[in-house]
Amino acid sequence: MVRNKVGEKMLVLGLTGNIGCGKSSVSTIFMNHGIEIVDADIVARHIFEDLDLLNKVFSTFGETIKNEDGSLNRKALGNIVFNDDEKLIALNNLTHPKIKENILKKVEEYKTQGKKIVAIDAALLIEDNYLPYIDKLILVTCKKDIQIKRIIARDNCTEKEAISRINSQMSQEDKAKFADYIIDNSGSFENLEQQVLEIISVLQGE
Questions:
Q1: What's the CA dihedral at 182, 187, 192, 198 to 10 degrees?
Q2: Is the predicted pLDDT of residue 1 greater than 80, yes or no?
Q3: In 10 A of CB 88, how many CB atoms?
Q4: 152: alpha, beta or left, given left = phi > 0 and alpha = psi -120 to 50?
Q5: By the 8 A CB rule, do 192 and 185 touch?
Q6: Are strands 9-17 and 2-3 parallel, antiparallel or unpaired?
Q7: pLDDT of the residue at 8
Q8: I need a surface site. Which of 23, 50, 51, 185 has the fewest CB within 10 A?
Q9: Helices (H), the chain
Q10: Helix, strand or coil for residue 110?
Q11: Per-position DSSP letters for 4-21, written without gaps between them
């Protein structure tokens, strides 16, 4: 736990959950109740504004991923890495350290602003070793059949594709071993919100 600029302890939360479990819904509830969110997906979208990193990606993956104006052709890069595990690992090795650096910088900014609670929202929070930087880990889970239905509806994919995406991630059971709080998002939004508000109440009392 770090201290913010007014000398109070700032609680750093980790918020994670597998595909289709509704992590973003929990993130929204947090934001609606005054908790700042550092969203790893948003940070990752801006990662290639760093020209040094962009040039490293071009030199690694070739000119075919460069648009005429010198910007990154994300679709072309995606086509390369998502059909080749080794190239995906190579891309992650380039981008993930910069994403983590920018996330931790955002957390520091909130600390200097005197915020009391900040949450890092990241799907790969455990896998990318953010645990040393957080005080409490919140895991969003749901039943597998519901998870599959949500992925099919959201991504317009087949059941087989949905299951493949689930199986490519660290299991909910393994992630639960690291969690301080587990939110079951198998039911209604009202039930989800109630669980989140109970956790917020506990955290604000710490």
A1: -60
A2: no
A3: 14
A4: alpha
A5: yes
A6: antiparallel
A7: 64
A8: 51
A9: 23-32, 40-45, 51-61, 74-81, 85-112, 144-155, 159-167, 172-176, 189-204
A10: helix
A11: -TTS-EEEEEEEEE-TTS
Query: By CB neighbour count within 10 A (0-12 exposed, 13-18 middle, 19+ buried), where does 116 fall?
Result: middle
pTM: 0.86
Tell me the torsion sign for CA atoms 186, 28, 154, 84.
Answer: negative
**Average pLDDT value for residue range 77-105:** 90
Token pair for residue 172?
């909910």
Position of tokens 């918020």?
A: 15
Phi, psi torsion values for 169, nearest 5 degrees: -105, 160
Across 32-48, b (16+ Cβ under 10 Å) vs e yields eeebbbbbbeebbeebb
